Input
Amino acid sequence: MLKHAEAPLRHDAADDSAVAELTRLLFDGEDRERVHGEWRRLIAGEAFAHRPGLTPTERTELSYERLRLVNGTVAGTEAEALTYDARRLAALHEWTGFVDGGLCTLASIHYNLFLGSLLDHDGYRRDLTAFTAMERTGTFLCTELAHGNDVAALETVAVLDRETGGFVLHTPTPGARKFMPNTSLAGGPKTAVVAARLLVDGEDQGVFLFLTPLSDADGHLPGIRVQRLPDRTGTPVDHCLTSFEHVRLPREAMLEAAHGRLDKDGRLNSNLGNRRKRFLRSVGRVTMGKLCMSGGTLGMARAALAIAVRYAHHRQVAAPKAGERIPVAAHRSHHGRLLRSLATAYAMTFLHRSVLDRWAGHDPTDPRQREETERLIAVAKGWITWQARDITVEARERCGAQGLFPANGIADLPLNVEGGITAEGDNLVIWTKAASELVFAHEAGPARAPRGELTDLGFLRDLHAAVERVWQTRARAALRGGPSGDPVGRWNETSGAALEMVAAHARTAAADAFLAAAARAGTPRARFLLEHLARLFLLDELRPHTGDLLVAGHLGPAQVEALHTTTEQTVAALAPHLMALADAFDLPPEYLAAAPIANADYLDRFETPQT
Output
C-alpha cells in the first residue's frame, strides 16, 4: 500500500521504476526510440536553446535555420518517408513545439502540407531533391482573405491555356489573396503548392493544387505579389498576403491523382463525382495536419507542467511554524491544480496515441472507415488543443511573476497554443461539422445504465458516455422540432446541445485511451498512479454534469454529495508523486537546465543576467 502524504516532495528511488514505466507508456512503448528519440536529442542541443533579445525578424530567421537542422536528420529519401510516418511526423511537432513555435509551424507546412501533398499526387513522378535537400523551402497556399472556414469557395483560378497546354494562375479579387502563408524571402527560395479553381473552357472543374515557384536568390518571381502581414501573437512566422497576376505555369504544375487528371485533350477524368469531393481529396493533408497541431500543443502543455511542477518544489514560502519555510507545492491549493492538469495531460497524450493508431491502421479505400477516422481526428484536435490552452495558462499562473519571463520557458506557450487551435481547421468549425454528423451517426451512451461507486473507473467512464447520450437526445429533439424550411434556424436550435455532445464524446474517447494505458502498465506502482490519475481526470470532468446525471438516475444524491470528498482523496493519494508524474514527460535535462525556475538555484540565475 502506498503511503499518502499531504506535502508532495521529489520522488524517491522507489518511484524511479514507475517513472520509467510511465514514460514507456506515454511515448509509444517499444517504438519510443524510433518515433521520439531523434527529435528529443535534437532539441537538447545548443542550437535550440532560448535566445533572448531577438527581433521578430531574427526569430523568424532562426526558425528557418532550425528547420534546416531538422532536415539534416531526415535528408534525402528519408524526408519523403517522414511524410508517410504519422507517428514520427506528429512526434516532430511534439518535441519542437515548446522550444520554437515558429519551427513547429514551418515543419508542419514543409513536410506535411507541401511535401505530403506532392507525394500524395503522383509524387513519384517528380524530382523532389530540391525540396528534400531544402534547397527550396515548401509552403502551402489554400485559405484566402475572404475564404477561411469556407475555403471550398475560394476564388483563385488556374485557367487551362489550350495553346500551350499549361495554366494561367490568377488572383481575380482582393478577397482572393492567399492568407496567411509564409511566402516572404525569409528562409531562402520557396516553392508553393497553391489551391486554385481549375477552369477548362470557362467551366469550373473544382479546386486542385498547382506547384508554383515563388522566389529565387534574387527575390520574388514575376507575377508573384507578396505583402508581409503585421506580427501576430505567439512566436513570429513570416505570414503574408500573396497574389498572382497571370502567372504562367507548365502542364506538369497540376498535382494529379485518381480524383482528377487532365487527358491530352484537356478533359478531366475523376473517380469522384462532384467538385466538393475533389476539393477534399486535394487538400487531404489537412487531416494529418490536425494530428500535427494536436501533437505540437500537447508537447507545449507537458513542457509547461514539467517546469511549473519543478518550480513548485523550489519556491519556498512561510511555514505555519515561525522561522520555517516550505515549498509552495506543499499546499493543496497549489498541487491540486497541478495534479488536475497533469491528469488531463496524460489523458490528452493517450488519446493522441490512440487516434494516431487509428489513423495508421485505417483502410483508406473504405469511405465509411475513413470518414469516421477523420471525424475522430477532428474531435481530438479540438479537445487536445483547447485543453492545452487551459493547461499552459494554469502552469503560467502557478509560476507567478516568474512565469511571465520567456527565459523560464512558459510565457510564450499559451499564445503558441492559440495558433494550433486555429490552424488546420478552426476548432469550433470542425467540431460543428462533427456535431452535425454525430447527432445521428452513432448511438451514444453505455450499453446499460451505469451503476457503481465513484471509485470504480468503469463506472466513471460510463457516466461520461451517459452524458454524451443526454446531449445527443437533446440535439435530436431540437433538430426534429426546429423551424421547417429554415436550415440555419433549425441548426441554431440544435448546435448548442450537439456541441456539448461532441465534448462528451471527446472525454469518453480520452477515458477509453487512458484506461487502456493503465491496463498495460507493467509495474504495480505505475498502474496505481495511472488509475488514480484516470480517476482524478474522470471525477474532475464530471463536476459540471452531476445535475443531468442525477435527473437521469445515474447518480444518487449521496454520490453527488460524495464527489468532492472522493476527488480530494484522490488528489491526496497522488500528491506525494507530483514530481514523478512530471518527470515521466522525459524532457531533456539540457532543456530543463536552461530554464531558470526549473532549477533549485533559480534565484541566483535571476540575479545574474544571462547572455
Observations:
- The chain has 21 helices and 15 strands.
